[in-house]
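Follow-up to my earlier ticket, as requested here are the two runs.
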Amino acid sequence: MRLVLALVLVVVPGLGLLVPGLLPVWSTPAGSLSVTLLQGNIPQDEKFQSGSGVPLALGWYGDQLNRSNTDLVVAPETAIPLLPQDLPDDYWAALKTRFASGAQAALIGCAAGQYGGGLHQLRSRSCAEPAAGLAL
């Protein structure tokens, strides 16, 4: 009995690997994508302080986004800790210009002033316009 069980446990899965089409195909590769995940490591109690955390976050994330060379760059929720209207002049416009060519894309968490509206794409949207099809 144990021999039969052992054979079933070894032979059946083995057949699935050896016989093409025996097992269902769940997905197929469509290419590759290089991704950079950013994490600023700014203490939560400092993150929204105008004299310390805000300039640190804007500087660090701005630098990392501008220096990235992967297909996709992802920054976490409230990486940009200010509402769009409170950002320094041209900060968001400079990031949009950086990613406008379409060779790269970025997903950046930013405060949007409304519940559920903080995840945005730089490729085609501004921080004030939530990206379609993205959920928080």
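Run two:
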Amino acid sequence: MDKRESILQNKLVIKKKESYYLINIEDVLYFTAHNNKILVISDDEYTYSSKLYNIEKTYYEYGFIRVNKSQIVNIQKVKRIDPCIGSRLILIMENNDNIIVTKSYIKRFKHYIGI
């Protein structure tokens, strides 16, 4: 890893309108796929040029895990976990957004957090 990669290792470079923002990865609450775009939800909402499977692979070691076909959450930003009908879970994020852990992702999620 060269010096530039080391400096940017924990940052996302995101374009919003005409400006570029460097977002600390630990400030991201979750990524969501919406209308063929990846939205990054933190203190604001940004569009990110990537695919969910790349984000999942790249940021897994930083505490990000896929919870359904269109969302990856930062486990550090989950405030509460509630059971839901149909063998699902609801994650209450720090900003009070509700994220569903679907049945096909629940086993991996529970293993990841140790429950």
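The only thing I checked on run two: Residues 103-113 form the longest helix (11 residues). Let me know what else you need.
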